[in-house]
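ok trying again, last paste got cut off:
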Amino acid sequence: MHERAGQLAQPEDLIDVDKVVSSYYDLVPDVDDPAQKVAFGTSGHRGSSLDAAFNEAHIVATTQAIVEYRASQGTDGPLFIGRDTHVLSEPAWKSAMEVLAANGVEVRIDARERFTPTPALSHAILLANGAGTAEGVRPTGPRRADGIIITPSHNPPRDGGFKYNPTHGGPADTGATSWIANRANEILRTGWEKVPRVSLEQALAAETTGKHDFLSAYVEDLANIIDFDAIRDAGVRIGADPMGGAAVDYWGEIGERYGLDLTVVNPDVDPTFRFMTLDWDGKIRMDCSSPNAMASLLGKMGADAPYDIATGNDTDADRHGIVTPDAGLMNPNHYLAVAISYLFAHRPGWAADAAIGKTLVSSSLIDRVAAGLGRKLIEVPVGFKYFVPGLLDGSVGFGGEESAGASFLRTDGTVWSTDKDGLILCLLASEILAVTGKSPSQLHGELVEKYGASAYARIDAAATKEQKAKLGKLDPSDVTAETLAGEPITARLVRAPGNDEPIGGLKVTTENAWFAARPSGTEDVYKIYAESFKGAEHLAEVQAAAKEVVDAALGG
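nice, full thing came through this time. structure:
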């Protein structure tokens, strides 16, 4: 823990905006350096211009690769494009626009020339492809829309991010991202300067460039997923902190449109994010699930709190943070369990067999809640893309990740967003309070009384590149242990039970505990997620045993 974690950023913590932007144009990546190639993780290509990992060359090559990919898929409708408030998002947006226009792609940009949250982009794609109509979403066929969202999510101010959402509106699957990354790197190697481009002025004036009012379309449609009448009638006092991100204009519009007692806690936008408090490691990071990054908002929520519910969103608003006066910042796993418990009891329009989706590293409290509701649980690998098919056809009512990202269906049981939506999860917290008279944290206490209390944590363990590669390809037979922290092992998983997809690691379960180990994509460590329903001491035993089990499976 950094000595100034949770304290306001100082001048020495801030990026040099001019240097970050000039590096975007001046530095050219070395395609033979793996750290400087285009690489799509679970949330697109990310990196910093200062490290030659997110530069003009990357974006020009990646945009051209997307142009070619969508053509190969027969996607000939409009491409929606949006960006967040990171300093690199605007130059990347400009580069992408120059390439898209030169290729004759029909593009839709924000009508207000402002910022676009990830869920608003997903919402726009789905509406264009038929969501909310009798026919439903058309993920195949002519004139289908797709999109690009330019954001590194909650990453530090020096970073940039570039993500493609195909016609289903959610994150692209591995098949698409691998194709795009490989083609982009080929373009980098053979000469990205040869990619067709026009000037930004020409791109904006092109006949193929149109405008879309992301904000109005999204905010006006929220009435079909959130009970605003209940929130307004109950007089719930809401404090919403966009954390300097793309939701900054949305929260004020939501409050005004629906007559809510809603205060935008911090409406400032600054590419240095100087108003942020430092995260656990001393970095500025807009992580709404971190008590250190949320320290300013938490400081307003004491005994005489001005808000009944306070919320935070990361920079592209695909994550949520929920703060209550009685408990402070809720653990993301705790809130997911409460949201699931509430929604499946208060959404009669959902299909009677609509399932609950969770990632395999989310709390087993969700498993117990699902069993209590009599609902099918679908456990998938890490990555929101695995929830897309179920949300799209309404067979999954709620999909959520342990990292505070989730989405759910409209009240009529049809798709709302196939990407994470931090705004609706924040609004749901106020609906829960309005309808039940209890805060989400109080309802979590009731779930604990019913299903038991758990201790949950994630730690890192050292691993070489070779060991990480082996961890990602383990077989259940590689685990020879019969017990884990004093309990018989009930399952050894390398594929997710919900969809039989490889988890890229290992999960071991017992009656009252589990751990999952996954290699880090950026550091020489593997991540151990673990949970125990027998207390913190048993959790520590599980974590220690997990290291032994994994080390033995890796051969020492």
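cool. The domain at 15-217 is CATH 3.40.120.10 (Alpha-D-Glucose-1,6-Bisphosphate; Chain A, domain 3). The chain has a mean pLDDT of 95.
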